[in-house]
Design a protein that fits this description.
Strand order of the largest sheet: 2-1-3-4
Largest sheet: 4 strands, antiparallel
Number of helices: 0
Number of strands: 4
Distance between the termini: 35 Å
């Protein structure tokens, strides 16, 4: 059985690598508010218990 990772911290980066959002949800599920973000491609970096996960996010 696979155990879900607890997200300790997240960073949202724009396509140029600038941090445009951060948070410390300490949860397995959470919501990142889109306030002020323009349409485009972003990276979401999640710091979890055993490392980090990076995923691409595209906003319309």
């Amino acid at each position: 059985m696979r155990r879900a990772n607890l997200v300790r911290r997240y960073r949202l980066l724009d396509i140029n690598g600038r941090t445009v959002g951060t948070g410390n949800p300490a949860a397995q599920r959470f919501t990142i508010e889109r306030n002020g973000l323009v349409a485009g491609t972003y990276l979401v970096e999640l710091e979890v218990e055993n490392g980090r996960i990076v995923r691409k996010l595209m906003l319309d």
